[in-house]
Batch of 2 targets.
Target 1
Amino acid sequence: PRLANQIAAGEVVERPASVVKELVENSLDAGATNIEVQVERGGQNKLLIRDNGGGIDKQQLVLALSRHATSKVHSLDDIESIATLGFRGEALASISSVSRLTLTSRPPQQTEAWLAYAEGRDMQVQLKPAAHPVGTTVEVADLFFNTPARRKFLRADKTEFHHIDELIKRLALSRFDVGFALSHNGKSIRNLPRCNTDVAKLKRLQMICGAGFCRDLVQIEQDAGTLKLAGWLLKPMACQVQNPPQYTFINGRMIRDKVVTHAIKQAYAAVVSDTSLAGYVLYIDLPFDQVDVNVHPTKHEVRFIETRLVHDFVVQAVAQALQQTQL
Ligand code: ADP
Ligand code: MG
């Protein structure tokens, strides 16, 4: 199975940031409220993701490292309404096939923790007892040690870490109810405690998007029945800073969609001359059967069933919010 896993890994595991994405999504799926990400040498030496989620049973640990054992997609209906973040059932096996991966976990009903790792050509999964609080730690050492071609494509540590940091920022903007901590080479880079209040949310927004963004914000909240738009926009008169935050989330997932981006720019075009300086953190929610998230395996793309409807709704909602600031 090692070869099959490595082929699958080609789709899922492009670089350290894609590993972190899969593992943090697993932690979120497991109901974690605190997630810690430790990175060494841009993730090439070590990635460690620790969570306080529901953990994995001793029996399930072995399965979790075996490909396709856990796929949650059993029918077409499942595919059409995937509400949890992970669904391919192969991330852990794929990552394990291109690194030295250990999985340590303790579910609340177990008094002891167990550590699992795959070994040898046939990737036999071994188990041994370990010390761990309730939750899970995945440690990924020597990423791509056995796939030199892929290793060669890795950029400088700084660049790879930057991708991880961007990912954590996006995840933190999509889950204010979860605490995130990120460190690089032992140094704390981000500490984002979970937010229970609006004040705490704004503080996180500021820590991620900068004080400049938060000084001149318009809050937006539009509800057109099944279509909802919420979030923050930079006031037109403040659209001068280079590289303003431009984040869009669709059903809780960070997505850069051409239709949505175009709509936002169109709304800004009425009030600012350079729409590349528009800043926004926007959340669109719509029924799961109105959007197809399976366009691409890395899930950065979507396809709307009613493209025009979504586009026009976003234009109208953003334009209206921006106009109110002009009064
Ligand atoms: P998928 O998430 O698509 O099911 P993965 O290979 O990413 O596939 O994970 C396999 C399984 O291992 C998951 O379905 C889940 O049951 C379990 N698992 C993985 N990571 C965690 C975690 N951090 N906490 C609890 N369970 C986990
Ligand atoms: Mg997963």
Target 2
Amino acid sequence: MVKKPVISMKMSPKAVSPGAASPKAVSPKAVSPKAANARLRKTLEVSGHRFTEQRAAVYRFVCDATTHPNADEVFQQVRGEVPGISLATVYKSLETLVNCGLASKLTYSDGSARYDGRTDPHHHVHCVSCGRVRDIPGHLSPDSLEILGKGLDGFRVSGYRLELTGFCSECSLETDTKGSMDPPN
Ligand code: ZN
Ligand code: MN
């Protein structure tokens, strides 16, 4: 088995070149709820999907969350808002949003997936202990990408995905506390 590198470079064409129907890459956090709804309705209809309250609730939560929730976390939150919604509907809504370019899907080697309401280019830190994913505020300089792309024989780079892995502050703290609570015999 290949050891997971600290910085993984994965091609993620969907995140880089979403379909023709996708909206401009903007951070949804910057727009009002009303504008977000209007944008959702328009984008769904352009891609041949209906606007539904379920989809709107899922979209709102994914846009507001900074935690990159998985489908179950979205379900737990949205079921309080939309009674009777099922996990399957939440899952299908999430996939619809991704297909329309309204959200990004972050997939992991263990088969899990998280959803991101941000569709502008940005990178993540991933805690290998609790699985939480957060945005990285910084960006790589175009220089470093050029250097990495050099010497790739015939490979046409269309995008990249960068993820820093490690332990979040809470998990680091837990490990430290555990360590001090279990002194060696
Ligand atoms: Zn953690
Ligand atoms: Mn993100």
